[in-house]
Design goal:
InterPro entries: HotDog_dom_sf, KR_dom, MaoC-like_dom, MFE-2_N, NAD(P)-bd_dom_sf, Peroxisomal_Beta-Oxidation, Sc_DH/Rdtase_CS, SCP2_sterol-bd_dom
Strand order of the largest sheet: 9-11-12-13-10-15-18-17-16-14
Pathway: Lipid metabolism; fatty acid beta-oxidation
Shape: globular
Protein name: Peroxisomal multifunctional enzyme type 2
Subcellular location: Peroxisome
Number of helices: 23
Main location: other
Strand content: 15-25%
Largest sheet: 10 strands, antiparallel
């Protein structure tokens, strides 16, 4: 059975397929993951996967408890040799390890071995397992019970013994080992399958309960050659599915940098895939004051099983939230073919093209110095910090607006006279979630005056479980464009109308670099933070009324997402711009989890050129509140306009860039579509930056200009004028220049392949 099931996988492993999502390129350039000071307990570590985990953790500095009962694959017998041999291997390489020979049913003893030997327990890998394969009709009570005692109860007992120690130290990582048999079922393994899927449920609940203590629990379903498979798996498959191809995933999930929690992964042969639940939109099969019948189920069966525009619930709250809407629709007798639609029309009756491009009524915002001050206080500014005075005191010589105040005049478009004014666009604002926000400033905001905002529905997307409205708002002072906002508004339950899922008009989020943050700043919000922030114009009772918050599924009123947004930008400006608001250019954020007033906002920041990647967490729980976000700052250098004449800097490379600009001028539009990237060149002389050039193939019709990128560069190259010329003339291979340190690259290194096409095929260099 195993050979038949895995034969296609072996063939795929032997012959590289263009369809497999496996990167076979250069080695990772991320910093090495170390586990110095961490204590790891691996059950079933005498061979196979467990041995691979133990050796890998020890090699990277962890102290390891190598647990193995020493029995056979069916659970018979006992021996110390398997665990002892692995411990000897670790110690021979200079690592730290101790053997333990207890059954996982004695969970306390296993954890005690870690505490007595190493003084703590940080990571638990529940790997121990046996097999008692029988067809369902032949499974005995003993076959059923022992599988559950070892796999499910054993993992429970070991993890429970470690749990309080992890809670007290505010760190823990747990791995449960499931199986494809548990996920999909497998003939002859009813006992094993039930236990293995039970481990997934256990892990999911631990991920919920442990989150606020920084305890993460994840589940893997590995395919690897081990003692459980070597009797049924031929040697060629054993070689193809080495345990060493599974261990790297386990190490990453257990590292303090990894924030993955409550997830399930399949892994084997060097491939890793993440699984998630998917649910059809379903159908309501009863009517008010009428009995629900099996015939009604039969009539709606095709709709019940239709996975078009399926939803992907991630929590039990998301799972059951639909039932409140079902009850509401039944009571109001508004049942449609789409149970998550909140309008009286059916899903097929909604045509987004009627609304895309529609302009909303112009909104005028009049304000004095009071509003910017009130806003600054609402996002945590305080007179305790002397540098905040210019934001909260109108008499300060440097009195100015925070850049994020730019969302305030724009947000009025969401309410009366805004989206609600579009005929036929029936939005239930109680189901509206603010998903993402983009803000770009073109000029500093005045501290008082009259601003005019013009809004357009840029697009409407069908996300299955809801509709996403992209609202573009341009704000003017007189005829001068001050700022541009894009609100991404998610209407829960309004999806399923058959529309597109993505849009080229959407400002996209960007994940931060995979390394330790360059800076971390924290601020405690006050219990009245939401009450204060709402005075800037967001009057949603969700942020002030406990009853309304409870109706929305929250235990108490939550903080405005745009308030957390303001805190995050303050942190960036303070650390990277010395609170100089003129350096702010743009911000993009995605709101992930709610924040409660009184909690601490902790912003992690990574600097990549003029772009500051960020994510904001709730310090008390470790949950990410804002993700995939960035702030773009202007350079401290004066930026010449792309339209200004090029000024000679006396470098040989100047001539080359001028010629590149001339040669690609006629095909700029074509290149923008093909490349969609900005390349910046920092040319040095005598060790100092002597010139900067930008090849912009993302904006407008494409152009080459002298100076830093007027927008964040996707890739930045740094090399001397002399080395640049030798690369252009073919005297130095670019790859050799890179590996020798002559050429330095920051950002998306893979885009250099497109650059080569530009320079050879179009610039004819």
């Amino acid at each position: 059975r195993m050979r038949a099931a895995l034969a296609p996988c072996l063939a795929a492993a032997a012959v590289p397929s263009p369809h497999l999502p496996i990167a076979l390129g250069p080695r990772s350039m991320s910093a090495a993951l170390r586990f110095d000071g961490r204590v790891v307990l691996v059950t079933g570590a005498g061979g196979g996967l467990g041995r691979a985990y133990a050796l890998a953790f020890a090699e990277r500095g962890a102290s390891v408890v190598v647990n193995d009962l020493g029995g056979d694959s069916k659970g018979h017998g006992k021996s110390s040799s398997a665990a002892d041999q692995v411990v000897e291997e670790i110690r021979a390489k200079g690592g730290k390890a101790v053997a333990n020979y207890d059954s996982v049913e004695a969970g306390e003893k296993l954890v005690r071995a870690a505490l007595e030997t190493f003084g703590r327990i940080d990571i638990v890998i529940n790997n121990a397992g046996i097999l008692r394969d029988r067809s369902f009709a032949r499974i005995s009570d003993e076959d059923w019970d022992i599988i559950h005692r070892v796999h499910l109860k054993g993992s429970f007992l070991v993890t429970r013994a470690a749990w309080n120690h992890m809670k007290n130290q505010k760190f823990g990582r747990i791995i449960m080992t499931s199986s494809a048999a548990g996920i999909y079922g497998n003939f002859g393994q009813a006992n094993y399958s039930a236990a293995k899927l039970g481990l997934l449920g256990l892990s999911n609940t631990l991920s919920v309960e442990g989150r606020k203590y920084n305890i993460h629990s994840n589940t893997i379903a590995p395919t690897a050659g081990s003692r459980l498979t070597q009797t049924i798996m031929p040697q060629d498959l054993v070689d193809a599915f080495k345990p060493e191809y599974v261990a790297p995933l386990v190490l990453w999930l257990c590292h303090e940098r990894c924030q993955e929690n409550g997830s399930l992964f399949e892994v084997g042969a060097g491939w890793i895939g993440k699984l998630r639940w998917e649910r059809s939109l379903g159908s309501i099969v009863r009517e008010k004051n009428h009995p629900m019948t099996p015939e009604a189920v039969q009539d709606k069966w095709e709709k019940i099983c239709d996975f078009d525009n399926a939803s992907k619930p991630r929590t039990i709250q998301e799972s059951v939230s639909i039932l409140n809407d079902v009850l509401s629709q039944i009571e109001s007798e508004e049942v449609s073919t789409n149970p998550t639609s909140y309008t009286r029309s059916t899903s097929s009756g909604f045509d987004p093209s009627k609304y895309v491009g529609q302009k909303l009524p112009t909104v005028v915002y009049n304000y004095t110095h009071l509003q910017p001050i009130l806003y600054a206080l609402g996002v945590g500014m305080s007179t305790k910090d002397p540098d905040h005075l210019k934001f909260v005191f109108e008499g300060s010589e440097a009195f100015c607006c925070l850049p994020t105040f730019g969302v305030i005049p724009a947000q009025a478009s969401l309410w009366d006279g805004g989206l609600s004014s579009i005929p036929g666009l029936n939005i239930d604002f109680t189901k509206l979630l603010h998903g993402e926000q983009y803000l770009e400033l073109y000029k500093p905001l005045p501290t008082s005056g009259q601003l005019t905002s013009e809004s357009t529905i840029a697009d409407i997307l069908d996300k299955g479980s809801g509709a996403l409205i992209l609202l573009d708002v341009h704000t003017y002072c007189g005829k001068d464009l001050l700022c541009y906002n894009q609100f991404s508004l998610f209407i829960v339950g309004a999806g399923g109308f058959g529309g597109k899922r993505t849009s080229e008009k959407a400002k996209v989020t960007v994940n931060p670099p995979n390394r330790t943050p360059d800076a971390v700043l924290s601020d405690v919000t006050t219990v009245d933070q939401a009450a204060l922030y709402r005075l800037s114009g967001d009057w949603n009772p969700l942020h002030i009324d406990p009853g309304f918050a409870a109706f929305g599924g929250f235990q108490k009123p939550i903080l405005h997402g745009l308030c957390s947004f303001g805190f995050a930008v303050r942190h960036v400006l303070k650390h990277f711009a010395n609170n100089d608001v003129t350096r702010f250019k743009a911000i993009k954020v995605r709101f992930v989890k709610p924040v409660f007033p009184g909690q601490t906002l902790q912003t992690e920041m990574w600097k990549e050129g003029n772009r500051i990647h960020l994510q904001t967490k709730v310090k008390e729980t470790g949950e990410v509140a804002i993700a995939g976000s960035y702030v773009d700052l202007t350079s401290t250098l004066d930026k010449p306009s792309a339209k200004e004449p090029i000024k000679a800097s006396g470098l040989h490379s100047d001539l080359v860039f001028e010629e590149i600009g001339r040669r690609i001028k006629e095909v700029g539009n074509q290149l923008v579509k093909k490349v969609n990237a900005i390349f910046q060149w920092d040319i040095t002389k005598d060790g100092e930056t002597a010139a900067q050039w930008t090849i912009d193939l993302k904006n407008g019709s494409g152009e080459v200009y002298q100076g830093p990128a007027q927008g964040s560069a996707d890739t930045t190259f740094t090399l001397s004028d002399q080395d640049f010329m030798e690369v252009v003339l073919g005297k130095i291979n670019p790859q050799k220049a890179f590996f020798s340190g002559k050429l330095k690259v920051k950002g998306n290194i893979m885009l250099s392949q497109k650059l080569e096409m530009i320079l050879k095929d179009y610039a004819k260099l």
